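In practice, a research group might receive sequence data for several interacting partners and want a quick structural hypothesis before committing to experiments. The following worked case mirrors that situation: the sequences arrive first, and a predicted assembly follows.
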Amino acid sequence: MASVWTKFFVHLPVLCVFFLLLLCLPPGGGQKKKENLLSEKVDQMMEWSSRRSVVRMNGDKFRRFVKAPPRNYSVIVMFTALQPQRQCSVCRQANEEYQVLANSWRYSSAFSNKLFFTVVDYDEGADVFQQLNMNSAPTFMHFPAKGKPKRADTFDLQRIGFASEQLAKWIADRTDVQIRVFRPPNYSGTIALALLVSLVGGLLYLRRNNLEFIYNKTGWAMAALCVVFAMTSGQMWNHIRGPPYAHKNPQNGQVSYIHGSSQAQFVAESHIILLLNAAITMGMVLLNEAATSKGDVGKRRIICLVGLGLVVFFFSFLLSIFRSKYHGYPYSFLIK
Amino acid sequence: MAEHHAVSDGKHKASTNAGGSVHGNSRPGAAGGGGGKGGLSGGLTQPAGWQSLLSFSILFLACLAGFSSRLFAVIRFESIIHEFDPWFNYRSTHHLTTNGFYEFLNWFDERAWYPLGRIVGGTVYPGLMVTAGLIHYMLNLLHITVHIRDVCVFLAPVFSGLTAISTFLLTRELWNQGAGLLAACFIAIVPGYISRSVAGSFDNEGIAIFALQFTYYLWVKSVKTGSVFWTIGCCLSYFYMVSAWGGYVFIINLIPLHVFVLMLMQRYSRRVYIAYSTFYIVGLVLSMQIPFVGFQPIRTSEHMAAAGVFALLQAYAFLQYLKDRLTRQEFQTLFFLGVSLAAGVVFLTVIYLTYTGLYAKIHIPIIASVSEHQPTTWVSFFFDLHILVCTFPAGLWFCIKNINDERVFVALYAISAVYFAGVMVRLMLTLTPVVCMLSAVAFSSVFEHYMGDDTKREKPPAEDSSDEDDKRNSGNLYDKAGKVRKHVSEQEKAEEGLGPNIKSIVTMLMLMLLMMFAVHCTWVTSNAYSSPSVVLASYNHDGTRNILDDFREAYYWLRQNTDEHARVMSWWDYGYQIAGMANRTTLVDNNTWNNSHIALVGKAMSSNESAAYKIMRSLDVDYVLIIFGGVIGYSGDDINKFLWMVRIAEGEHPKDIRESDYFTPQGEFRVDKAGSPTLLNCLMYKMSYYRFGEMQLDFRTPPGFDRTRNAEIGNKDIKFQHLEEAFTSEHWLVRIYKVKNLDNREPLDHKLRSVVPKQKYTSKKTAKRKRGHIKNKLALRKGKKLQKK
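A structural hypothesis for the assembly, expressed as tokens:
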């Protein structure tokens, strides 16, 4: 309040008319009215946010509760366009993250009237967008309790994304309010696991009289090889880094399945490698089968040649893919 | 290229002879060697002697090939310790040899982590230093005087030979001798293992892989025989492993897993009981003797699986005992099921907890900043293992199809190691041995069938029975494999073989693939893994070589020109090298145990000069050392690492350092004019580019053109207030700045208050007023005057 009054004194000549008006009122009435107004606003905001964690605003409400001066609370505003006809898929994702954050704040023990989460939809408050010269959605802004929003009060969406943890960090930076993001736990993984276990258990129970298949070595060997192939083709890398499936060149529309650098890979690429590795392994096994199995010699010769072909051809193919990724590698075999 | 020849030569021999020795093994009388040794075998009376001579010479050649292919760096440069961590190991080994073992165990290093210091004796795995020290001591005892540095440089290649031998032994236990020889040849030259064991890379992993393989060999041996003798050997080897590397956790989880799976498969036997009970108790007690490990084996979650399996094994053995006494079979099976389920659940939770713990660690910036802690792409697998990565699943397939107790072990080893290698690049090292063994199994079974003559395939039945007898006598040595072979020869006796043409084609192509493998290994070793990184080399267009020895130049300058107790601030990557080569006190080093201290250094590097000066004064910094690659285009310099410094600093001081300040509004990290002003004025930037703006590297580029980042720098007018340039190396790779002491007095920004007050007009006639300003002395003179008067 004090700073407001000093401002008044600085602009004394300009505000003398206002002063005259004030003189008409009982002494100290202005301040009291402001306090009333403030507490009224805070109460209103508290009521809204107790009803739902993110307060929806239109143009009038925005100007009254967010822009207008007597405030002692910070407001985080998400400007967005959630109507289906706007076709903003990013807005929907951002909105989910924002809801998670707002709920974490709403139901945390530190919840107070110092910080409110609001949202302005383009279709409800287009004038606000015009007023703030805003032409992209979603945008997150922080309106501090005192003064005007600065440059850093606009959340840098392009660079750090809109994960609620990042938003919480930004809010902690701007307002000193620490929010511990609490995500509603995702039970789908647990449910899937439970289903799988019960399915396996049920199968075992149904076939309890004939448990021979547990001793089936081929099944176990297949399972082991699946793990090995998944790992050696870099599926764990895909899981942690989440690369795109393939890359489509925006200029000529060509789709490349192999990443050009040796430091990265596409999902499609890792699948190709998985198949190549499996083919080479199968070739080795076939070679062995051809030599050990009983049967017609001609058939065994064919199996042997197929196995050899699998090993040699797919290995040289694998080598050529490796060569195209690892620049400067000098060796190749059959295929350049 | 002498190494190259040795390698491929050894490989050829290995593969030809692998087939030969296998045949000799199965039919002792018929053929001494399938591949070209037929002439010799005719006159031989004792083929077994030839066999062992061949095995011995192949193993010897494999060791030799392994040793010599690791010497690229020594031949190209000199006998020098590589990279970063080896410098610390070398320094502590040096300390050990000069001051003795007990002094080493109690060593408190006050030259690191100033002002905190570091307890070295209690925070290292001492196996490496003790091994090197012991070898040095033995050699000196024999009056072979070598410097400890040479022992350190050549330790890893020597141990790679031992690794080849222990891999041979292990694979022989698992499959047969031919596969063992192939596996020894593979492990000797495979890049996945060479990457950590070239000459000069004096690191824990170099000796730990030997200890790992040898422990596994002794474990398999003790499970097979059930004798306490082998188990005690296994425990001693495990003790050596614990003393050498933190990766011993892999052993203490894999062996219980093996026992657990054996129990699930109803393969429990007294041999397993004796082996595991002895191993767990003795191994536990021995591992707790290492100061760094201490009480961890009974406290932390990584070791709980071993304890759980131990308890389970005792319960199971007790139940087995009861089974002989009781009749209620169903009650027992139910009980067993309940117990095993409970144990399994506990086991899985432990693994889950370990996994999540590991995963959380990956997301801390200081761990994420190390490139070794990244997940693995398929390219790295192929680069490090080449054809082995495609063929080892076939070996795994054969092992599971012909399962027995020890093949359960190798299957579990393969699956767990491949999982860990997928999560983290550096764990490729633990995968490499098992890949070599299983690939050897795959190749050896192919060669077994395709190498050798059809005409010699008939087999007298008498030999067959003697073979059976042999097998029984030799203590179940080759049980399953022997069966498979017998089956093959029987059926080949009944029908004709595949024909010599197909067989020779298959053999030729397989040998060609193996040759490519040998060539690939040599190329990778020579190009990727043999750079000391302390000395750099660049090649001109005509192929001549320039040696850039800036690092050692700068460290030697520090050693010679600075005070002995001077404190040098640098980013943590260079801590060990400064301590090892320059022998000066460092603030942070590669042992990243104190994140906040590192963050403080990062904060100093990323703040402006005056703020940094305050931090440096509080840390008593005398010199700052940075690496700058802009002149020669060296990409691993400090500006490229700078964002990690900012991130780590931001983690501890979020109020002062903000990562976004170092980016342009478009979110780019640029050093030219468009770069953010915070970056252009931070200490690291100023130190890197001080006086660089005056330097024109070549006529096509403007002055101050950074070759690493291909940009003209944005701030060419750099002046220092609190620092001064002390040293810049020949190619500007290392720059050292001296931190000035505080000025005598802070210069005031306003004018000094004049001491003489403005004088009013005073007439000089009255002496009293004049005297009034000057105090006692004049009063004395006045007295004199009075006396005179």
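Before designing any experiment, note the following. The mean pLDDT of chain A is 79. Chain A touches chain B through 62 residues (CB under 8 Å).
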